[in-house]
Amino acid sequence: MQRIYEPENLMEAQMLVGMLANEGIEVFLIGRDLVGAAGELPIQGLLGLAVADEQAGYARQLIDAYNAAQPVLGDEPDSYPGTLIC
Description:
- It comes from Pseudomonas cremoricolorata.
- The protein is of the alpha+beta class.
- Helix content is 30%, strand content 14%.
- The protein has helices at residues 10-22, 56-68, and strands at 2-5, 27-30, 48-51.
- Strands 1-3-2 form a three-stranded antiparallel β-sheet, with helices on one face.
- The chain is globular, with a radius of gyration of 15 Å.
């Protein structure tokens, strides 16, 4: 088991868990229950995504692609330029 990524928040963590699960990667979200205690604990490093050793390389590639993604020009609403439509 390898810890491969530290998401910024619980929403990003859940989204990445779903993305990786759709690719057949079993993901463990470390620290989900600690987020509510953020006022008492250090904020950095609470959340982490962990996968099996043999799936770590592929999972990192997918997360790197997610982090490198850019909005497609013309795919945002006129009232909110620069916003992705999901």
